[in-house]
Amino acid sequence: MAKIEIKGLTKRFERITALDSVNLELEEGQIVGLLGPNGSGKTTLIKMMNGLLTPTEGEILIDGMNPGVGTKKIVAYLPDRNALPDYMTTDQLIRIYEDFFEDFDRAKAEAMVDDLGIDRRQTMKKMSKGTKEKLQLCLVMARNAQVYLLDEPIGGVDPATRDYILKTIISNYNENAVVIISTHLIADIESVLDDVIFIKEGKVVLHRMAEEIREEKEESIDQLFREVFKC
User: Fold this and answer.
1) Domain parsing of the chain, residue ranges
2) pTM of this prediction?
3) Nearest to 41 by CA among 160, 156, 182, 154
4) CB–CB of 49/67 below 8 Å?
């Protein structure tokens, strides 16, 4: 299964260095928290892993490949904003995902959608924001991917919806995959994390196993996060 190697990764925009010399190795079979405040570089890193942005310096290897056509077959990506066409129905979107991704499990997608009570004939335009986010997550998690990149999957939704989203992630991901969850809502996801990355102003300031943090620091990941990122 896929291993992620990030070496000397830097991304500069006109006047901003969004990522600065990031080095990471992520192994299969882990749920990884990519944790940092808004503007810390989380979305930039996830977009680069998905091939939507190119490095200024350094490289990313996913299963030995640079992000591109080859990695799209094994990487499932949930953007931080809805990216699905408003005019399409749930059934249409399921068919498109089935046609586009060889690892897409239609039966799993339909089961998740039905469990949520989403009308398969309804267009995205008529759905609430929360329903759109749940549907997008269902489509992503119905893939038997080797890497899942989930950018702020619980941002902007109510606590009950957050619980459902986390339950959906835990219940449906490929257990041999790498799951990366980007968020600044640490307390809500702490219990599911195996590995933790703190990112601040484009730099990785901590990368440890979640259990090591709890044992050595004798505090929760949320408490440590508040210390590291206090104003």
Assistant:
1) 4-85+139-228
2) 0.92
3) 182
4) yes
Task: Look up the CATH number of domain 4-85+139-228.
Answer: 3.40.50.300
Task: Copy the structure tokens of residue 107.
Answer: 């039966």
Q: What DSSP string runs through the chain?
A: ---EEEEEEEEE-SS-EEEEEEEEEE-SSEEEEEE--TTSSHHHHHHHHTTSS--SEEEEEETTB-SSHHHHTTEEEE-SS--S-TT-BHHHHHHHHHHH-TTB-HHHHHHHHHHHT--TTSBGGGS-HHHHHHHHHHHHHTB--SEEEEESTTTTS-HHHHHHHHHHHHHHS-TTSEEEEEES-HHHHGGG-SEEEEEETTEEEEEEEHHHHHHHH-S-HHHHHHHHT--
Tokens of 6: 């990030």
Q: What Rg, from alpha-carbon coordinates, does the chain have?
A: 17
Query: What confidence tens digit (pLDDT) does each residue in 186-222 have?
Result: 888 888 899 999 999 999 999 999 998 888 878 888 8
Q: Which of 210, 24, 50, 80 is nearest to 145 (CA)?
A: 50
Give bridge partners of residue 10 from the DSSP assignment: 57
- Reported as a single tens digit per residue, the pLDDT across 102-140 is 999 999 999 989 988 899 999 999 998 888 888 998 999
Cβ atoms of 191 and 15 closer than 8 Å: no
Q: Which two tokens stand for residue 181?
A: 């969850």
